[in-house]
Amino acid sequence: MIAGAPAAGKGTQCAKIVEKYKLVHISVGDILRDEVKNGTPAGKKAKDFMDRGVLVPDEVVVEMVKARLAEGDVKQRGWLLDGYPRSASQAEAIEKEGIRPDVFLLINVPDELLVERVVGRRLDPQTGAIYHLKYSPPSADIVSRLIQRSDDTEDKCRVRVATHNANVDAVVGYYKDVKVDIDGTQSMQDVFEAICTALDETIAKSDPLEQYC
Ligand code: AP5
User: Whose CA is nearest to atom 55 of ligand 1?
Assistant: First the structure.
């Protein structure tokens, strides 16, 4: 599992993690945005909550996540759950199914850095790549096709950060035994190296004969 405030760098790191460790990346935010884009019943319910920067109700999210975790590719390759659980009730829902992470990565970034990261973020709709106008600038040939998320405004960012801060301790409480704190203020590469160290140690502990090569 990977957790952290809005714009802490979860999506950026997940792209690198899945490339190296071949896990299935399950981003609840991405799934919800797809549902909204496709106008599904779940998407229609979720849209207003996402626009306001608050949590989408459990009745929409929990079954969606449980269903995705039950799919074949996940069972075969393992999962990297990004943006779930975000509340005690969501953690409880998967605890009941016996679903627990081997490691819970918590990317820590002080609130004052998050707004700048949010408003400077740009996404490539063709590749899904995440850019930042200052910290990870796109090349000139793709800049015109990049988009900005509708919740990436300063006001909405502040609500999203407050939502995160109100819930994070309850979620962490479920995973204290496997939590690894990651300093998210470092460069993207240094954050990734800290994550790899945590994952490699976890893999080595879980089965010394099957260490990642
Ligand atoms: P979601 O899509 O999950 O958004 P979020 O948690 O707010 O996180 P972000 O995607 O904004 O940030 P990130 O940490 O991935 O950062 P990134 O790598 O892009 O959720 C959206 C909404 O969906 C929620 O508000 C809620 O309504 C709903 N939702 C989702 N899950 C839910 C759930 N479980 N229950 C109910 N509702 C749910 O990086 C950000 C920027 O910073 C980028 O531009 C990047 O280039 C830059 N950057 C990254 N790392 C660094 C670094 N080390 N240094 C400098 N810049 C960096």
Answer: 135
Backbone angles phi, psi at 101, to 5 degrees: -80, 155
Task: Give ipTM to 2 decimals.
Answer: 0.97
**Secondary structure (3-state) at 110:** coil
Q: Residue 210 C-alpha to ligand 1 middle, in angstroms? A: 32
Output the CATH code of domain 2-200: 3.40.50.300
Say what the pLDDT of residue 208 is: 57
Indicate the domain borders of the chain: 2-200
Q: Which residues line ligand 1 (CB under 6 A)?
A: 4, 6-12, 28-29, 32, 49-50, 53-56, 61, 83-84, 86, 90, 117, 120-121, 130-132, 135-136, 160, 184, 187-188, 191
pLDDT at 142 over 80: yes
Core vs surface per residue 102-111: b (16+ CB within 10 A) or e: ebbbbbebee
pTM above 0.90, yes or no: yes
